[in-house]
Design a protein that fits this description.
two-stranded antiparallel sheet, 2 strands, globular, 294 residues, 8 helices
Length: 294
């Protein structure tokens, strides 16, 4: 399991396949020797190349298709609160999965191109989880959902996280300004990326669950939707366990053919589907509004 030293990525990269690891000099993406753990080798391709994580690539493709269907089903819920905001979150998740094909999936790419995809991937993760948190805020109808103000807030704030995180990742991987050069080698200490990529999404998710629990239990006075919310949280947690705890054992047991990244991608997809089911269950026409009017 990865080190708990604040800001350090080396042990995480040793034990798991994380997109951020592509930025560091030890990464095979940069011709490095690796981080000292089990190397994900995947399958051989013609010409001597390798496809590191075919399973993740296939599940990413499935996630894109499923998310597109959820966007279409959301469009049919004309009276649903937060319909546009949920669609924006699903679009952000699709962007995450597209990038994951080239970062975690290990699709053959030039090193600098993979670094760019990695930067977009990291920024998209932070932006997507932030947008999800704002979806919970929209549920309280402090702002009218679907209005230019609501949609603009989601898009602009999400874009700020995407650009900010993406810039730090690019500057780290391409070493433009030398600011993050010390993080390129063991212990790969990068406070900015650690806070934005590791800690901020976790905080946003905790706040999302807390706000939605208040909305369902205190405002709507319902219990059943909490099962869907708890299911989504459980599925996401299982995915993280596969990524950070079990991954190295799977890699060693399969001689580098697969690792926990495949299962993390799968369980994250299931969590997103369960989140959509949760959202759908609390946006039926017969729910009372926060103001208590029908």
């Amino acid at each position: 399991m990865g080190s708990t030293a604040f800001g350090n990525f080396h042990d995480f990269c040793r034990d798991a396949t994380l997109p951020v690891c592509n930025l560091f000099d030890e990464s095979p993406n940069k011709g490095g020797p690796g981080f000292g753990g089990c190397e994900l080798r995947g399958i051989s391709l013609s010409g001597g190349g390798r496809l590191a994580n075919l399973g993740s690539i296939l599940i990413c493709g499935l996630a894109i298709v499923v998310s597109s269907l959820l966007i279409w089903w959301s469009e049919r819920k004309k009276a649903a609160v937060g319909r546009r905001e949920m669609q924006i979150f699903l679009l952000a998740y699709i962007l995450v999965e597209i990038c994951e094909i080239f970062t975690v999936g290990g699709f053959p790419l030039d090193s600098k191109v993979r670094t760019v995809f990695t930067a977009i991937h990291l920024g998209a993760i932070v932006a997507a989880v932030w947008i999800l948190l704002l979806n919970a805020v929209v549920g309280f109808q402090l702002l009218d959902d679907g209005t230019p103000v609501s949609i603009g807030l989601l898009l602009l704030s999400g874009l700020a996280f995407l650009i900010g995180t993406g810039y730090i990742a690019l500057d780290t991987g391409l070493n433009w300004t030398k600011t993050f050069e010390p993080s390129l080698n063991d212990p790969n200490r990068n406070i900015g990326l650690y806070v934005l990529y590791q800690l901020a999404p976790l905080l946003f998710l905790v706040l999302f669950v807390a706000l939605e629990a208040v909305l369902v239990l205190r405002v709507l006075g319902e219990r059943r939707p909490m099962l869907y919310l708890a299911g989504a949280a459980l599925l996401f947690a299982i995915g993280q366990i596969f990524q950070y705890v079990v991954s190295t054992h799977i890699c060693q047991g399969t001689d580098g053919a697969i690792d926990g990244a495949l299962f993390e991608t799968l369980f994250t997809l299931l969590a997103v589907v369960m989140l959509w089911i949760f959202w759908s269950s609390i946006t039926e026409d017969d729910w009372p509004t926060p103001g208590g009017y029908a």
